[in-house]
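Regression report. Comparing outputs from two consecutive submissions.

Submission 1:
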Amino acid sequence: MQEEFVYPETAVGDVLGIPKKRLRAIRRNCGLRDGEHFRTINRSLVYSVHGMKLLLRCMGTVGNGDFDEMCHKILIAANGSYTEGEGTTTAIVHLERPVCEMIVHRADWLNSRIITALLGGVQQRVNVTSSKNFVRGMRIKARRIEGDLWQLQGRCPRYRGRW
């Protein structure tokens, strides 16, 4: 059976209040093995369920009953949400966030590195290199950074209103 890797190290550090260097030292002292207890996915270190249990036990952070609660906190910190399965918790993991197509709504802000675009009728802010060649109605692709802030994927248009 293949182990699922669902606990990003950044979220573990944020929830526990421990920097990455300290987590690395704890990981080595506890004897966690690469590929079995943790793995690097898209340049991010991610722990398996078994690796997370070993890490938390080694740190003495939680007892057996508190493990599920701590895992919920880590998943929420990493993804913003989680779903309940039958008896177990399954995470909605988006290490590589999806690219969405949006329509430019406004590009004449005082900050020339921000435009607003519509996604499903809702205005979203999009970071761009330069907003000078964007016009209302252009279709762009962007990836969510956080909340309503997105990052343009690909290049900015070379000419006004045209790619």
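Submission 2:
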Amino acid sequence: MQTDFDIPKSVAICPHCGGALHLEVDEWEENGTPTYVGVHVSCEGETDDPNDRHYQTPYVDWMPLEHRVWTWARVHIRVTESEDELRARMVDWNAGKPLPGGF
């Protein structure tokens, strides 16, 4: 199941360094649409350095950007199971195993 995506530069770039952004989705609706709180944006140029200033002004730079990315993701991103994952669930179901979350 794919939950990490590259954000096209035509949608958004890093407000700090102009780098490419990545989207991680950790919550989605039943149809695979990312939820607002389940969308997390990061920059390819950010580091673990405590002096990294990527998030110095989160309310000015990042909140509007995250909203723009979420608006794009609601239209263009769907989190779904792969064919292999679906087949494995069918095998379990046919074997009489209970499925978490139903089927």
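Expected: both submissions complete independently.
Actual: both completed, but the second showed a warning that disappeared on reload.
Relevant detail on submission 2: The mean pLDDT is 85.
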